[in-house]
Prior knowledge:
The complex is a heterodimer. Chain A is mainly α. Chain A contains 9 helices and no strands. In chain B, helix 5 packs across helix 7 (136-151) and helix 9 runs antiparallel to helix 10 (193-222).
Amino acid sequence: MQQFIFTFFNADIAARYxxxxxxxxxxxxxLSLAVVAAGLxxxxxxxxxxxxxxxxxxxxxxxxxxxxxALPPLIIIIVLFFAFPYIDLAMSAFTAxxxxxxxxxAAYAEESIWAGIQxxxxxxxxxxxxxxxxxxxxxxxxxxxxxxxxxxxxLTNRVISITKNTALGSVVALSEILNTxxxxxxxxxxxxxxxxxxxxYLLIFIPVVLFARWLESRWRWKR
Amino acid sequence: xxxxxxxxxxxxVYCDVLPFLLRGLWTTIWLSLLVIxxxxxxGLALALLSTQSRSRTVRVLVAVYVDLFRSFPxxxxxxxxxxxxxxxxxxxxxVVAVAIGFMFNNASYFAEVFRAGIESxxxxxxxxxxxxxxxxxxxxxxxxxPQATRNCxxxxxxxxxxxxxxxxxASVVALPELLRVAxxxxxxxxxxxxxxxxxxxxxxxxxxxxxxxxxLEHKGRALP
Lengths: 223, 224
């Protein structure tokens, strides 16, 4: 037992690498926030485009959503980071991870918001239009507020699982938590930094999961 | 345009690496066939514990387990298992490390799906089944769980797709599944076409499933 603690929870090693891990937590949090903001906005925009019901545009949005939901996020990151430089589109590890996860989140957000829009009775938008609101106004003030509410439970789950995927950035050497912890672990020849990294993830994501549960119960549609 | 064809869709490279990539695809498929059923079964077990157990402690423990693994990135879990266990004097084969990591992670996701499914079956079903003389276990097995499974079928399929996509993280511990094989091929031919080909193979495998899922979800909404 003593040996176990000495190996996995070594206080000296933890003290030495703790500052690095804290810095990498900043990268993970920044990346997560950037992905969530851009992904949700893009998804919302795509859902509105789809609601406008122009055939060609609907087809494009559906194709985009299908492809981004079918491809594993890790391979998107790897294609962006390792293959795009060959066609003179090199990007940093941060940009590649951010872009890949944003596109994936946008695809899922579009599907959830679109499902919310579709499940509203037609009468809602018809009544809004008949009061003299324009298409945009009825979308903005009547349809979207209700649709977003319906989209919250599936979206919270999706947001959590996609922000956890920021760990995939370690594969392209982005210095987020996992990559930093792994490097420190092989430097120190001890799994203690990995345990620190694991603790850092729990520190960030347990509050997020609890917040999501609270949000789901608070925003549950009252029928 | 030429650079794009040369580096992304190089026909010669495609022909050369396709046999390797197909072997990788096969590994991806059997890996999925190993980790999806174990995830489904352990998730169902957890869901039954959390909805049927009379002990508050058990229900709380299951909830803690589910939230813990919902907040833990699967890649971190895999690396912790694969690179951490040797320090315990335990050299796990790659497949075993991957299978254990996936089981811990999947169990929590499938548990949430099944819990929602079980809660969607009206209480009367259980009571009616019990009143015909079935035991609690029989009522669960023959009446409640089949209906619950049908009710959460779209979510089960959705989770299954996520798990197949997640098998790509096994490439990080050098398990030769599709993505790993493609990256090895890329470094042999100095051309990124193999990764693009791998992406196309993933699309061919998963796009039909995504379409099917969309139809299922659509049908689910049409019901009253």
